[in-house]
TrEMBL record:
Transmembrane segments: none annotated. NCBIfam families: HAD-SF-IA-v1. Its cofactor is Mg(2+). This is Putative hydrolase of the HAD superfamily. It comes from Amnibacterium kyonggiense. Keywords: Hydrolase, Magnesium. GO terms for biological process: small molecule metabolic process. GO terms for molecular function: hydrolase activity.
Length: 227
């Protein structure tokens, strides 16, 4: 991939360990009230409501409220007003999630190696701008990785190819010279390719589609792949 001049990276699952953070957060939030049934309901609600948000069916705050509406009855709790749900999110799961943010150990070294090789980096991530920026600050990558472009700021969400094209325009990069690195095949890899970018799947857990050939298991492999 010698023509790559810019590497555009996803955040959750690539630079920050969102999966572990979410698991730690729901356990810290619910404590002894957490049962296998409740945990399964929470992550089913997360997947459903985030998918609806990506499709434009829910706003960012509403998908959070919807997740609580899905799970509170399983806990035997009443569903409050929107304001009450917002306060419950902020003091409960949301606060625990923020405390659980940590980056992957391979992220910083890989970004520095790319910079040393003359390759620019930037971030394109779904999510709200304030939260995604705060994540990068917390894990120590905000000043290292380059411009941060979020769905909240762009008004476009992956896998919409327009999100990738607008991101390239904002950073002044030709899509054909940009490589996108993400951990979700349909959302990241296929979305990026649909916009004319190169794309590689970061498959940390070994669940890549069998017909996908552009796969790495660690960001440590990325600098050599680009060179």
């Amino acid at each position: 991939m010698s023509d790559v001049r810019t590497v555009l990276l996803d955040l959750d699952g690539v630079l920050m360990d969102h999966t572990s953070a979410a698991r730690e957060a729901v356990r810290a939030w619910l404590g002894a009230r957490l049962t296998p049934e409740v945990e399964a309901a929470w992550f089913a609600a997360q997947d459903l409501r985030l998918a609806q948000w990506r499709a434009g069916g829910l706003g960012w705050e509403e998908q959070r409220r919807a997740r609580l509406r899905d799970v509170l009855p399983v806990l035997g709790e009443r569903i409050g007003t929107d304001d009450e749900l917002d306060a419950q999110w902020a003091s409960g799961y949301g606060a625990a999630y923020r405390r659980s943010w940590h980056g992957f150990e391979d992220a910083g070294p890989a970004i520095r190696a790319l910079h040393d090789a003359g390759v620019r980096t930037a971030v394109l991530t779904n999510g709200a701008e304030d939260q995604q920026t705060a994540k990068l600050r917390t894990i120590g990558l905000l000043d290292l990785v380059g411009p941060v472009l979020t769905a909240g700021a762009l008004g476009l969400r992956k896998p919409d190819p327009r999100a990738f094209l607008v991101a390239c325009e904002r950073i002044g990069a030709d899509p054909s010279a940009v490589l996108y690195v993400g951990d979700e095949h349909e959302v990241d890899v296929l979305g990026a390719r649909g916009a004319g970018l190169g794309a590689v799947l970061l498959d940390r857990d070994g669940t890549a589609p069998p017909d996908e050939t552009a796969v790495i298991r660690s960001l440590a492999e990325l600098p050599a792949l680009v060179r």
